[in-house]
Amino acid sequence: MPFFHKLQLLRRSPAAASRRRRKTVHTSAAASYLQQSQPVAFLLFVVTVAAIVLISFVGVSSVTLPVLPNQLAMVRIVAGAPFSYESRIKTELSRAQLLNRVPPVYQLELGPLQQFESNLHELLAALEKIERDYPADTVAASGMQGAFSPSARRAAELDTLVEAFNAKGPYRVAADDVAALLALGDAKARFAIVENGLAALREIYREGVDDNSRTFAAGSPDSISLFRVRRPSGEIAQVRVQSMEEALTFLRINLAAEGVSRETTLSLFRLFRNGVTPNLIFDRGATERLQQQVIADLKPVTVSVERGQTIIEPGARVTPEQYEMLVAHRDFLLHHGDLAINEGLQFFGRILLVLAMVMASVLYIRLEDPETMRNNGRLALLALVVILNLALVRTTYWVGELPSFMKNTTAASLLPYVAPTALAPLIVAILIDAGSAVFMALLISIFTSVIYGNRLDLLVVTFLASMVGIFSCRAIRRRSRVVRAAGLGGCTVAGFAALIGIADQFPPLVVIRQMAAGLVTGLLTGVAVAGLLPVLEGLFRRTTDITLLELTDYNHPLLHRMQMETPGTYHHSLVVANLAENAANAIGANPLLCRVCSLFHDIGKTTKPEYFSENQREGVNPHNERSPSFSALIIKSHVKEGVDLALKHKLPTAVIDVIRQHHGTTLIQTFYQRARGGEIHPPAGGSAPPIPAASRDPFPPGLETRVCETTYRYDGPKPQFKESAIIMLADGVEAATRSLRRVTPQHLSELIDQIFKSRLEDGQLDEAPLNLAELSQIKSSFTFTLLNMLHARVAYPPAAEKPEARNAPRKSEQGAG
């Protein structure tokens, strides 16, 4: 043996290894008792019930529930003490009633009359000019016809005059009516008639004209219109105001004069009616001054409430008056009383409610996940996260009891949407399973709704949000996906907060704030879950797919060391990982766990790599100079060395279990047969193929050496879970296939059947939860994977020789010559 190898063996000899303190897995009796003891499980049950009762009911009062106007009340709230308060709503109602009784004040507007009077005088002057330019006797004596006759030109001038008059205001005067005024006589007669009409208009405007469009009248509800009118002197008097019909009737009567025909009177009426418009104008300043005088003596309305009087009825919408009374009640108790009033269910009834829910959880877990019921660590994890989650919900409720939130119920209404109800369901879904997470979500949603006053809408929203988060956490392998799953739950809360706000007719700003609170809470819950997972994994020895995926990084120190120091073992581990992962997919086990554990299952071989056949080079086999028992001890030590390295690098418990169990208590056939007197032809090491049962005793009984079989068996334990058993079988199959000279489906199937049979007959799978159907599926998966991995390739033809190479003499010929 070369000197270098001797030095290497000396450095890695058992004596040198013994000086290094090796870490091992120790399970104390106390830890085993705590893990599996039924009294401990019962104690967890009692502590959980007590904690939920303490968190959900002690000190919880319906008085502090966040309630908004128009919200559907779920509990009855009664006054815990007699109190009185000044009602702003009732005071405003009384004030509105008083103001409604105060009649408005008006003033008479004379501007339209003055404008009409001025325009009418201008019309008279224009008519006088027309009369001078076109005298009536001259027009009649001319006898001319056509567009240029005096009569036609007079009519055109008259039309132009009427159009100009109508354009000066809202007038609709006809040319015939102005012609009738012109035909009354000379200018003096026309002036007298116009002044008579204007005098009637002045009387109408002085009394006031109403258009009957106002809904308020100070008198009785008949047609009499009595209004408060402010005189120019400032005095306010109640007067009767004419309607338009009454004003026009008065005008027609005053225009009817002796010696004037009916047709002329009607023409004058149609002319002067353009000057009649409603002149009753609302006087805002005078009205407000009158209202202030009326409400100056108004006092706030005081409401007295007796002890036990109902403030809010369940099943009804909260009215503004009830909401005001509730706020006053809270303010009174905050300064004079105790908020913790015993209401609703009695304390004993509340304990029964919690007992029923926790018992239902226990029965559900017992039916759906018996493994959790047998593991007090898992039960403690469930209890801890549920209690922690409810404590956070109760903390948000406690915040609502602070004076600032009691005075601002709008802000307090955001607290139910701030409660992180999806925290525990997400943790349970990732660390245990989705079934337990669903029931935990229901449990937390029920008690959250109870804490916030039996709100059914809150129960539905929080449970649905948790279910969305659980659904999104399926097979999650990245921490960012945890935040995404919780964010989707927050989006669900935000969406339903909008629907509930619209149904309850909340103000838009309140709905937007509730939506934002639900969304932000969902994102923060995801961040909290992602941060708590490593802590809970280490505390309760749980391993998530997130951690497993992180361990598949080939730059991990142990995997990198295997690549550098034991490349044969590293390649063996990769092949075992592929076999185990595909087999786990076939039977519904955890494929990621199989891959990770397979990558690390032989890390102990890095301590003495040259003792294992896959790492031996240059034909050097150190076992040739060792006794069989010593060689078996070295082969077996790679399990303990692997556990030691796994503990030092803080690998998950599942990986350490696979390192310990992947050989079970199998026999190291090579050295066992050698100790009994056989040859040393088979390859040594943990990767050596097992010897068939037919050739285990090839020696005559007289030649066998008596040896202790325990010396040549691994220390175990046997595989305890499906993934560990799969890796054991994959490890043996991969090592055995290296001895096949020809890979065919028949040969491969026979070899796999032989290995499975030997493991079953040796009892290595007795403690693994695998059935025969699953073993058959694993065989098929191994066969399929290996046939694809060990397939033959088409041989490439030799490269064509160059002409000069063919003509050149061979070396042998040159030497012969």
Could you give the topology of this structure?
Elements: H1 3-11, H2 14-18, H3 29-36, H4 38-56, E1 77-78, E2 83-87, H5 88-101, E3 105-108, H6 111-133, H7 136-142, H8 150-167, H9 175-182, H10 187-207, E4 209-210, E5 226-230, E6 236-240, E7 242-243, H11 244-255, H12 262-272, E8 280-282, H13 284-295, E9 301-305, E10 310-312, H14 320-336, H15 347-368, H16 370-373, H17 376-399, H18 403-407, H19 409-412, H20 415-418, H21 423-431, H22 434-451, H23 456-472, H24 479-503, H25 508-540, H26 545-551, H27 557-565, H28 567-587, H29 591-600, H30 628-648, H31 653-661, H32 669-675, H33 722-737, H34 745-761, H35 772-789, H36 803-807, H37 811-816
Parallel strand pairs: 3-5, 4-7
Antiparallel strand pairs: 1-10, 2-9, 3-8, 5-6
Helix pairs in contact: 4-15, 4-17, 6-8, 6-10, 9-12, 10-11, 15-22, 17-21, 17-22, 21-22, 21-23, 21-25, 22-23, 23-24, 24-25, 27-28, 28-29, 28-33, 28-35, 29-31, 29-33, 30-31, 30-32, 33-34, 34-35
